[in-house]
Amino acid sequence: MRTSIIRSERMAISYDVVNGWTVLEVDGEIDVHTSPGIRQAVVELLGEGHRHFVLDLCFVPFLDSVGLGTVVASTKRIREREGSLRIACPSGRLLKVFEISGLHDAYDFYVSPEEATVDAPSADGLAHWPHGEAGA
Predict the structure, then answer these.
(1) Residue 136 and residue 114: Cα distance in Å, rounded?
(2) DSSP string, 83-136
(3) Is the confidence at residue 88, as pLDDT, over 70?
(4) Cα 51 to Cα 15, 77, 90, distances in angstroms
(5) d(Cα 11, Cα 28) in Å, to the nearest integer?
(6) How many CB atoms lie within 10 A of CB 120?
(7) Which of the two residues, 1 and 82, has the higher pLDDT score?
(8) Domains defined for the chain, CATH in brackets
(9) Alpha helix (H) ranges present in the chain?
(10) Cα separation of 7 and 89, whole Å?
(11) What is the pTM of this model?
């Protein structure tokens, strides 16, 4: 059952739990104006005990450097809780942002949230981040 966390004119954030993963769906641009909402959602969910996340970017047409910084900061918080993070549905444009920043190899990317949640989270989570392992 999808639960709405934030709904504004610029962005909607909701989540669902699938096979041990908290699938955080973002709908809207991730930029200087909307990034605080993502940060807030991750902090709230971590506070509720969620540790393993899939960041669903299927409905994200744009990600700027501030948005990328929010992804990195969220990853650090998740890692502190011995959690995991996978990224689903990045468009070619979004992947380019990760490539240009040198962070492409630091994350595991999946074609869809369904693909990202097929396997339950592993115990090692983000232990090797930011070096990552080969993504799907």
Answers:
(1) 13
(2) -EEEEE---HHHHHHHHHHT-GGGSEEESSHHHHTSSPPPTTTTTTTTT-----
(3) yes
(4) 13, 10, 21
(5) 5
(6) 10
(7) 82
(8) 3-116 (3.30.750.24)
(9) 35-47, 65-80, 92-101, 113-116
(10) 21
(11) 0.89
- β-partners of residue 24 are 15, 55
Average pLDDT over residues 106-119: 96
For 28-79, write each residue's pLDDT tens digit: 999 999 999 999 999 999 999 999 999 999 999 999 999 999 999 999 999 9
Could you say which DSSP state residue 22 is in?
E
Structure tokens given for 102: 């040198």
Half-sphere exposure of 100 (CA within 13 A, CB side): 10
Tokens 């444009």 label which residue?
A: 93
CA 61/CA 56 separation, integer angstroms: 12
Q: One-letter amino acid identity for 12?
A: A
